[in-house]
Amino acid sequence: MDIFFPIQRLANWITYSFLPLQESNHFAESLNFFIYDTIKIVVLLIVVNYIMAVFRYYLPVEKIRKILTSRNWYGLDYLLAAFFGVVTPFCSCSSIPLFIGFVSAGIPLGVTFAFLITSPLVNEASLALFPALFGWQITLIYNLIGILVGVTGGMIIHKLNMEKYIEPSLLKFKSKVDIAGKKEKIALSKLVTIWWVEGWQITKSLIPYVLLGIGVGAIIHGFIPANFFERYLSSRQWWTVPVATLAGLPLYANSVGLIPIMEVLVDKGVSLGTALAFMTATVTLSIPEALILRKAMKLPLLITFFGVTTVGIMIIGYFFNFIYR
Amino acid sequence: MKIQVLGSGCATCHKLFEITQQAIKELQLTHTVEYVTGDKGTQKIIELGSMSSPVLAINGKIAMVGFVPDVEKIKKLILDNLN
Question: Which Gene3D superfamilies match (chain B) (predicted)?
Answer without folding.
Answer: Glutaredoxin
